[in-house]
Design a protein that fits this description.
Number of helices: 11
InterPro entries: DegT/StrS_aminotransferase (IPR000653), PyrdxlP-dep_Trfase (IPR015424), PyrdxlP-dep_Trfase_major (IPR015421), PyrdxlP-dep_Trfase_small (IPR015422)
Bound molecules: pyridoxal-5'-phosphate
CATH class of the largest domain: Alpha Beta
Helix content: 25-40%
Keywords: Aminotransferase, Pyridoxal phosphate, Transferase
Organism: Candidatus Methylophosphatis roskildensis
GO biological process, one term: polysaccharide biosynthetic process
Order of helices and strands: EHHEHEHEHEHEEEEEHHEEHEHEH
Strand content: 5-15%
Distance between the termini: 32 Å
Structural class: alpha/beta
Protein name: DegT/DnrJ/EryC1/StrS family aminotransferase
Length: 378
């Protein structure tokens, strides 16, 4: 019996009927972009939902990252992680900044504060950590390092929608935090993103920059860009917000099923239970010890059975050709990141999955690992 492929994620799409009234209202008003009513409403509603004071919406997370870096007026080196989606580092390049890679922590897979500090030079201006898979960085240590060296601290929080630590929203940390609302994310607007900041002046700066630098019809005061979110996506975001808590709860149940089924499976490590006070269960990475070839063989076995697990984040960003020649990209300097990239497999996790789907994935993993062990003995 053929089954539908199980993708690593699927976009949360509420019933189309629920979206129709918003579409009708946009058609009636004729205002489809340029800071319309749904854009402003989503900014207010999201800020309240996320427990932050100021938030500026963007067309996507990459433009949000670039605009955040631009708003801080940075130039020089930025210490960042090689274990992320490539947009984290690309945003630096687009802003004329030089990435300096530092190694990660083997448990959280986020930047290791001591490695960050060792990478700082007189040219360093900022730190750009990522809350990878929504797992909180060591925010206290990073804050101290940034303060000690007078560096800006910008969090790539693309995976951290709704995540909280003991003190509240994770997005309160750093000078700025950047979210992605791409279709692969827990909360999405097809394409979209946001920058979270701490005061109205920075919010004004971000708003200026994302709209070409216009302050009124004829006055341009910044070399801005077009990074605005349009009304369709903003309206869809308002609809998504009604469903996102239920979606995160469904993800939590998938996470629990996986943990129950995979416990004790030899050769495979599940992620630690998230240390966050509130997680979003956006990803379910497992680690297959025994080298990249073994991990790739397990991934291929799943794929043969229509389970599209993904090797996020392989290759490391530091291995891409535009970064590989940087001194900080030398493999010997990033051993933990390399080990993670060689062993990780992100399993499908999304609200439409059933308990049976988890059982099927776990059975395929057991089969693949058993086969590898048998082959190794031959
Ligand atoms: C860690 C990280 N940073 C940045 C981005 C870029 O966001 P976007 O795709 O919305 O441009 C993504 C994902 O897409 C991401 O996973």
């Amino acid at each position: 019996m053929s089954r539908a492929p199980l993708y690593v994620t699927r976009p949360l799409l509420p019933p189309l009927e629920e979206f129709r009234p918003w579409l009708e209202s946009i058609w009636q008003s004729g205002q489809v972009t340029n800071g319309g009513p749904y854009h402003d409403e989503l900014e207010r509603t999201l800020a309240a939902h996320l427990g932050v004071e100021h938030l500026s919406l963007f067309a996507n997370g990459t433009l949000a990252l670039m605009t955040a870096l631009k708003a801080l007026g940075l130039g020089g080196e930025v210490v960042t992680t090689p274990y992320s989606f490539v947009a984290t580092t690309h945003a630096l390049g687009w802003c004329g900044l030089t990435p300096v890679f530092a190694d990660i922590d083997p448990v959280t897979l986020n930047l290791r504060p001591d490695a960050v500090e060792a990478a700082i030079t007189p040219a360093t201006r900022a730190i750009l950590p990522v809350h990878v898979y929504g797992v909180p960085c060591d925010t206290a240590a990073l804050r101290q390092i940034a303060a000690r060296h007078r560096l800006a601290l910008v969090y790539d929080a693309a995976h951290a929608f709704g995540v909280a630590d003991a003190g509240g929203s994770l997005l309160r940390h750093g000078d700025l935090s950047v979210l992605s609302f791409h279709a692969t994310k827990v909360f999405h607007t097809f394409e979209g993103g946001a920058v979270v900041c701490h005061d109205a002046a920075m919010k004004r700066e971000l708003d200026l920059l994302k709209n070409f630098g216009f302050v009124d019809e004829t006055t341009v005061v910044r070399t801005g860009i077009n990074a605005k979110m349009d009304e369709l996506r903003a309206a869809f975001g308002l609809l998504q917000l009604r469903h996102v808590d239920a979606a995160i709860e469904a993800r939590r149940q998938i996470d629990a099923h996986y943990r129950a089924h995979l416990a004790g499976l030899s050769g495979l490590r599940c992620p630690q239970q998230p240390a966050a006070a509130r997680s979003n269960h956006g990803y379910f990475p497992v680690f297959i010890d025994g080298g990249r070839a073994l991990r790739d063989a397990v991934a291929a076995h799943l794929r043969e059975h229509d389970v599209m697990a993904r090797r996020y984040f392989h290759p490391l960003i530091s291995d891409f050709p535009m970064y590989a020649a940087l001194p900080s990209a030398a493999p010997a300097r990033l051993p933990v990141a390399r080990q993670a990239a060689d062993s990780v497999l992100c399993l499908p996790i999304h609200p439409q999955m059933s308990a049976d789907d988890c059982t099927r994935v776990a059975a395929l993993l057991a089969e693949a690992l058993g086969r590898q062990r048998r082959d190794a003995r031959i």
